[in-house]
Amino acid sequence: MSTSTSLNEDRRCFGLMMMIIIISMIFVGSLTLSIDSSAYASREEENIAISKAPVYESVNGTLTSMRVIDVYSGNPKTEASFTENATMTGVGYVNNRGTYEESIISSNITRGTGKGIISSHESGNIITWNAHDLGEKQEDGTYVFKGIIFLNIPPGSDGVDGSNEFEYFDNQVGVYRSIVNDTGSIREIWLLS
Fold first, then answer.
1. Which of 179, 175, 169, 178 lies closest to 189 in space, CA to CA?
2. For the chain, which ranges sit under pLDDT 50?
3. Domains and CATH numbers, the chain
4. pLDDT of 156
């Protein structure tokens, strides 16, 4: 299979995944983006909303390790781990630690699957995530990753008082954009609800 055929198949796969999300939102109710003055777009019964502002923002991600995990089975694969400090709406300052396994599709396209843990600086409570993305290398060497992320509070992760400030984000799905270059990374997440 040629690289361009593989690249087109990967773009179709990602496009299909995004179309499924949009179609699901249409069948659940009418797709609306109701904007109000709060941090979120409003969600009325039978309407689907997307957060108008990112609910997660980091500005100082750091690559902590990188290794090659496969060079023999079609597309080479790498594994990259990172840590970043961020802010989350309703939570405050958090630390995000994660690992992505990236398949190198072409000289400028990667397809990745990641997982990680976000922890509150204040309480130590956590929420976990799984994500899928496509990355595209820009002319200046920067990579832009766009993907979908699934957030979940693991059982037994409530604080001492039985609460967890991540409760609003439990079982939520979001979309994200991450920009990575030689000096670090930034990431933004918006919720689909």
1. 175
2. 1, 4, 16, 19-44, 46
3. 52-192 (2.40.160.20)
4. 77
Q: What three-state secondary structure class fits 21?
A: helix
The candidate with the shortest Cα–Cα distance to 57, out of 39, 42, 31, 70, is 39
Quick: pLDDT tens for 111-162.
999 999 999 999 899 999 999 999 999 999 999 999 999 999 998 776 666 6
Name the nearest CA neighbour of 125 among 165, 85, 83, 171: 165
What letter represents residue 175's amino acid?
Answer: V
CA distances from 22 to 27, 31, 164, 166 (A): 9, 8, 30, 25
| Residue in 87, 40, 41 with CA at minimum distance from that of residue 60 | 87
Which residue reads 């109710």 in tokens? Answer: 29
Can you tell me the distance from the alpha carbon of 145 to that of 159, in angstroms, rounded to the nearest whole number? 33
Tell me the pLDDT of the chain averaged across its residues. Answer: 81
Give CB contacts under 8 A, 24+ apart, made by 160-164. Answer: 164/125, 164/127
86: its two tokens? 């961020």
